[in-house]
Write a structure and sequence with these properties.
Layout (H helix, E strand, L loop, with lengths): L5 H7 L6 E6 L5 E7 L2 H9 L8 H7 L2 E6 L3 H15 L6 E2 L6 E5 L9 E3 L8 E6 L2 H14 L7 H6 L5 H4 L13 H16 L2 H17 L3 H20 L1 E2 L7 E9 L2 E10 L2 E2 L3 E6 L5 H12 L8 E3 L7 H12 L4 E3 L5 H37 L8 E10 L2 E11 L2 E2 L5 E4 L8 H19 L5 E5 L2 H14 L5 E5 L2 H5 L8 E3 L7 E2 L5 H36 L5 H11 L2 H6 L2 H5 L6 H11 L2
Helix pairs in contact: 1-2, 4-11, 4-12, 8-9, 9-10, 13-17, 14-15
Length: 607
């Protein structure tokens, strides 16, 4: 009698209602998250081999179990799918390379004296986000332009609270100086609204607002303010003149295009505001598992997280769950949003333009990837590998005179930082500043775990010279593990001998003389990237450990601070930095502190 497949038995028990299904491997790691109007029918297509998508055979070879969450409607399923994808980051789901790599401008309009800050992650915190900006220099140029036109504060909350006179930015006309009361909240709010209209691309209503306020200022004989508004209006109007009007009805819409080859691709969005077309924004997309019609629901929910949704979204294909998607986007906007695939007229040409921009961005990224793969292949040959290293791990220690020793690991996948895989370590067995012993401990811990999980790197990179490399080799020898390894050392010795143009050198285990490459060599740049990433990661972690120890020590010395209050302060304010930066009112708001004790605590922290 044939034995029933456990997976088929699980599928047979699934309900026929709407919901979300999660495929897991034998270690209970989520491989794929999907939604369905009929869970049993949809999952049965995978198991029976009726789903012809190219990724499905690879997925099903690893699936050991399927679990589900039933929902009342397809809209709820779509929303839950998006949440679970963000939570589990499954290997086979579409990944929009956006918030982790691109910068955004963030502003919390409900905060006290709001300011714009640059962030890489979009959070569900009710703040407004603008972007993304595909380069840090371009994002900072935008911040600079905002400062010249809209005099909002740029200082931190702690600096704002401590100032007693205006800073130089106020003297330059780039800050309204709310820190010393030179602007009231109504006027500051108007400046903020103007800045957000400008970032939204809604330049026509902004010009009208400026024109009205300029007339009011002139009538009240505030001629200096009127002149400033006139100059700002001219600057904004010049921006409008550069934009191409593509919609005579002056609608707000986003036009999306997609270009893909296999499991990789690029999406492009062309924003149209008040009928004028703005610069397209392109984003690489990784792991494209399905048909184009299945991709846009999760992509759009990611793209509009924390951002304004226009009244109309144009797509090159109609999503399979367009009605549920319209409902969710309408909820985000607060009014009806139309999601449609145009079939004729100017809207079709706009979608074609967005698709062309996606293709151009894909071609550019492909050129970069080809050069990167060539460099990885050359690096593999240099260190004795049979091919390019897929996973590179780099390790570094950090301590200050032996205080609070820590270590960190950075990871490059196919030559690119994989920040989700970075790790931080507290040194457990070494006392004092012994870099060699610390390196041996950390490598031993990492490789032992890798042996248990079957997850070892193709190449180990050690930040240091022969001493650190030998310590790392000793750790591997004790475990009986052979892994390719190199060290990368800064040229301090060469600089001390007068060679100021020397660059980093590469240490190969068992080879006496280091390998010297030219400063622009692509192989060296890959190792330097791994080293710089792990160095920054280690230093930040070491600083955090020291600050936590410092604030803990200070809190312990304040009469009346016991374990409960200390825990409440750190939990409520987030970190040691948060405790130090908090003013008396913020400290008093922490449960169990109160106004009287907050005053004593603030004085102790800032003594």
């Amino acid at each position: 009698m044939p034995v029933e497949d456990p997976l088929e038995a699980q599928v047979a028990s699934l309900p026929t209602s709407a919901g979300v299904y999660l495929f897991e491997d034998k270690r209970h790691r989520v491989l794929y998250v999907g939604k369905a109007g009929n869970l049993r029918s949809r999952v049965k297509q995978y198991v029976a081999g009726h789903d012809e998508r190219f990724m499905v055979p690879f997925l099903m070879r690893q699936v050991a179990a399927v679990r589900f969450v039933a929902t009342r409607t397809e809209k709820e399923a779509l929303l839950l799918e998006n949440t679970l994808i963000k939570q589990h980051r499954p290997r086979y789901n579409t990944k929009l390379v956006d918030d982790k790599n691109f910068l955004h401008l963030r502003v919390d309009a409900k905060g006290a004296w709001p300011r714009f800050t640059l962030v890489r992650r979009i959070k569900d915190d009710k703040a407004r986000y603008f972007g993304p900006y595909t380069s840090a220099s371009r994002a900072r140029e935008t911040v600079g332009a905002l400062g010249r036109q809209f005099p909002l504060r740029t200082c931190s909350d702690a600096t704002l609270a401590s100032r007693t006179r205006p800073c130089i930015l106020h003297q330059m006309g780039r800050c309204a100086a709310p820190c010393v009361g030179l602007v009231d909240r109504q006027r500051y709010g108007e400046i903020l609204d103007d800045a957000m209209l400008f970032l939204d691309g809604r330049t026509a209503p902004l010009v009208n607002r400026l024109k009205e306020r300029m007339a009011e200022a002139a009538e009240a004989e505030r001629f200096e303010e009127a002149a400033r508004l006139r100059d700002l209006m001219k600057s904004v109007s010049a921006t409008v003149e550069k934009q191409q009007v593509v919609d005579s009805k002056l609608r707000d819409r986003d036009v999306w295009g997609l270009y893909r080859v296999g499991a990789r691709g690029v999406v492009a969005c062309v924003p149209v505001r008040d009928g004028a077309m703005h610069e397209p924004v392109t984003s690489p997309v990784q792991s494209l598992p399905g048909e184009d019609a299945d991709l846009f629901s999760s992509l759009l929910l990611d793209a509009y997280a924390g951002r304004d949704v226009p009244a109309e979204v144009l797509l090159p294909v109609r999503p399979s769950d367009a009605d549920a998607l319209e409902e969710l986007l309408s909820d985000l906007r607060g009014s009806h949003v139309t999601v449609r695939m145009p079939e004729r007229g100017d809207a079709v040409r706009l979608v074609e333009l967005a698709t062309e921009n996606a293709k151009l961005a894909y071609d550019r990224s492909l050129d970069v990837d080809v050069r990167l793969q060539d460099a990885l292949g050359a690096l593999g040959a240099l260190v004795g590998l049979s091919g390019p290293p897929h996973r590179i791990e780099c390790f570094d220690n950090s301590n200050l005179m032996g205080d609070s020793p820590v270590a960190a690991m950075s990871v490059l996948i196919d030559g690119k930082p994989a920040r989700d895989a970075y790790r931080r370590y507290k040194i457990k067995t070494v006392i004092g500043a012994d870099d060699y012993a610390s390196m041996k401990e950390i490598l031993g811990r990492r490789v032992s775990r890798g042996q248990d999980e079957g997850d070892l790197p193709d190449l180990l990179v050690i930040d240091g010279g022969h001493g650190q490399v030998n310590a790392a080799m000793a750790a591997l020898n004790e475990l009986g593990v052979v892994l390719p390894m190199v060290g990368i050392r800064k040229p301090r010795t060469e600089h001390a001998k007068g060679n100021k143009t020397a660059t980093d050198v590469i240490i190969i285990p068992g080879v006496k003389d280091p390998i010297v490459l030219k400063s622009g060599d692509a192989r060296l740049k890959i190792l330097q990237l791994a080293r710089d990433q792990v160095h920054d990661h280690a230093v930040r972690y070491h600083r955090k450990v020291r600050e936590k120890a410092a604030v803990g020590s200070i809190l312990d010395d304040v009469p009346g601070v016991g374990p409960a209050r200390r825990t409440a302060l750190l939990r409520h304010l987030g970190s040691a930095e948060g405790v130090f930066a908090a003013d008396e009112a913020t400290l008093a708001a922490v449960p169990g502190v109160g106004a009287a004790f907050a005053k004593r605590l603030w004085a102790a922290l800032h003594a």
